[in-house]
Design brief:
Blueprint (H helix, E strand, L loop, with lengths): L1 H26 L10 H14 L14 E4 L2 E13 L2 E8 L7 E5 L11 H7 L4 E7 L14 H15 L4 E5 L3 H13 L8 E5 L11 H7 L3 H8 L1 E2 L10 E3 L1 H11 L1 H17 L2 H14 L5 E2 H13 L9 E2 L2 E2 L9 E7 L12 H5 L8 E6 L11 H18 L1
Parallel strand pairs: 4-5, 4-6, 6-7, 7-13, 13-14
Antiparallel strand pairs: 1-2, 2-3, 3-5, 8-9, 9-10, 11-12
Helix pairs in contact: 1-2, 2-9, 4-5, 9-10
InterPro entries: AB_hydrolase_fold, PHA/PHB_synthase, PHB_depo_C, PHB_depoly_PhaZ
Protein name: Polyhydroxyalkanoate depolymerase
Length: about 400
C-alpha cells in the first residue's frame, strides 16, 4: 500500500512538473535582464525548482565519453562484459596500446544508481582500466529471476572479478565494503586465481559498533521484524518487477535527506538566488548534483533485510559470525591482497574506525600490506567524490594498486 500511494503521488505530480518546466522555458525568452522583467525571472526560478523536484527511477548516464591519457584525449566506450538480471559488469573501455591495472569498482546497492560514483570513475580512468558493478533497479527485475540477498551479492562480486581475470584489483565504496571483504576472503580461501591483488575499502560499515552514527542508531532501534513490516513493500504490477518485495529507494532517500534537511533547504534557497541572479555556473552545479541525488533505485528486500540484520544489528563480520552460503567467512586467510581502508573525518554515515576495523580482521596480512587513511575535512561523499578525493585520497589508492602489481 505504501508503494502504491507513493507511485500515485509521483504520477499525479509528473504532469505538473512537466508543465512547470515547459512554462519556465517559455518565460525565459521574455527575460531581457532589465529591471522590469525581474518578476518574470523570479517566477521562472520558482517554476524550475518545482519542475526539478521530483524523483526518477531511471539511471542517469555516466557521461565519460573521453579521458586524458598521457596528454592524449582518448575515447571511452561503455561495454557490457557480463550481465545477470540483477546487475551488469560495465567496462569503460579505452583503445590504448599500454595495459593498465584492471580495477573493479563495487558500487553501493543502497538506493542510488552506480552513477553516484561517476567522479570516482573519472578520476581512476586516466591511469586504470576501470570496471563497475552497474546494479539493476529491483523494481525492474521480474520475480521469476529469484532472490537476491547477501550471498547473491557476494556471488556477483566474485563472478565479476573472475570475468576481469587474474591480476585485477577491487575498490568498494560504502555499503559493499562488507560483502567485498567477504568475497575476497572466500576467493583467498579457495585460492581462486582471480583473487584481487589489492582491496580498497572506502567509508564502509565493517564494524558499526565503533563511533556509531544516526544511521547505526536507527538500525539498532527496532528488531528486524519491524523493518520488514514497515519498510518493505511490494512493487506495483505495472512494472517489470511487479510483485517483488523491495525496500523502496524513495524511503532510503527520504531517510538520508532528513538527516541533513537544513542543508538541502539551504541548497534550494541558494539555487533560487542563483537562478534569479543569473549565476549559471552555480545553477548548473546544483542541477547536476540533484539530478543524480534524486535518481533512486529499489533494493531487493532480501538484501536490505540481511544487510540490516548481519551488518548493523548482529555485527557478524567483526564477531566472526559472517557466512557465505553457510560457510564461515575468514578474513584472516587473506594473505596476498594489499589492503587500504579510507575514512572521512566528518562522515556522519560511517563513523571513524568502522572501516579501519578491517585491518585487524585481515590479521594474515603483514603490517606493511594493510593501511588506513583518515581524510581530514571530508564527509561521507568527500571520500570518493570531489576535490579531496582527487587530490588527496586517489594518490594513496593509486600507490596501493602500484605496490600490489
Amino acid at each position: 500500500m505504501m508503494y502504491q500511494m507513493y507511485q500515485a503521488q509521483q504520477d499525479l505530480m509528473a504532469p505538473i512538473r512537466l508543465f512547470a518546466k515547459g512554462t519556465g522555458a517559455i518565460l525565459r525568452h521574455f527575460d531581457n535582464g532589465r529591471p522590469e522583467t525581474y518578476p518574470v525571472r523570479q517566477f521562472t526560478a520558482m517554476l524550475e525548482l518545482l519542475g526539478s523536484s521530483g524523483l526518477t527511477h531511471v539511471r542517469p548516464p555516466f557521461g565519460c565519453a573521453t579521458v586524458q591519457v598521457e596528454n592524449q584525449e582518448v575515447a571511452v566506450e561503455e561495454e557490457e562484459v557480463f550481465s545477470t538480471p540483477f546487475g551488469t559488469l560495465l567496462h569503460f573501455r579505452k583503445d590504448i596500446g599500454t595495459p593498465q591495472p584492471r580495477v573493479l569498482v563495487v558500487a553501493p546497492m543502497s538506493g542510488h544508481f552506480a552513477t553516484l560514483l561517476r567522479n570516482t570513475v573519472q578520476v581512476l580512468l586516466p591511469e586504470h582500466d576501470v570496471y563497475i558493478t552497474d546494479w539493476t533497479n529491483a523494481r525492474e527485475v521480474p520475480v521469476r529471476a529469484g532472490r537476491f540477498g547477501m550471498d547473491e551479492f557476494i556471488d556477483h562480486v566474485i563472478r565479476f572479478q573472475e570475468e576481469i581475470g587474474p591480476g585485477g584489483h577491487i575498490l568498494a565504496v560504502c555499503q559493499p565494503a562488507v560483502p567485498v571483504l567477504a568475497a575476497v576472503a572466500a576467493m583467498s580461501e579457495a585460492q581462486n586465481p582471480a583473487t584481487p591483488r589489492s582491496m580498497v575499502l572506502m567509508a564502509g560499515p565493517i564494524d558499526t559498533r565503533v563511533s556509531p552514527t544516526k544511521v547505526n542508531a536507527l538500525a539498532q532501534s527496532h528488531d528486524i521484524e519491524w523493518f520488514e513490516k514497515n519498510l518493505v513493500d511490494t512493487v506495483p504490477w505495472r512494472f517489470k518487477g511487479g510483485g517483488r518485495k523491495v525496500y523502496p529507494g524513495a524511503l532510503q532517500l527520504s531517510a538520508f535527506m532528513s538527516m541533513n534537511m537544513k542543508r538541502h533547504v539551504s541548497a534550494h534557497l541558494e539555487q533560487y538566488r542563483n537562478l534569479v541572479g543569473g549565476d549559471s555556473e552555480l545553477a548548473d552545479a546544483h542541477r547536476r548534483f540533484y539530478d543524480e541525488y534524486l535518481a533512486v533505485m529499489d533494493l531487493p528486500a532480501e538484501f536490505y533485510l540481511e544487510t540490516v540484520k548481519t551488518v548493523f544489528q548482529g555485527h557478524d563480520m567483526p564477531l566472526g559470525r559472517f557466512t557465505h552460503h553457510g560457510r564461515p567467512v575468514r578474513p584472516e586467510l587473506i594473505r596476498h591482497t594489499r589492503l587500504l581502508t579510507v575514512e572521512g573525518e566528518r562522515d556522519d554515515i560511517c563513523g571513524i574506525g568502522q572501516t579501519a576495523a578491517a585491518l585487524d580482521l585481515c590479521s594474515g596480512l603483514p603490517a606493511e600490506m594493510r593501511h588506513n587513511h583518515l581524510q581530514a575535512g571530508a564527509g561521507h561523499y568527500g571520500v570518493f567524490s570531489g576535490r579531496r578525493w582527487a587530490t588527496e585520497v586517489y594518490p594513496l589508492v593509486r600507490r596501493t594498486i602500484q605496490e600490489a602489481n
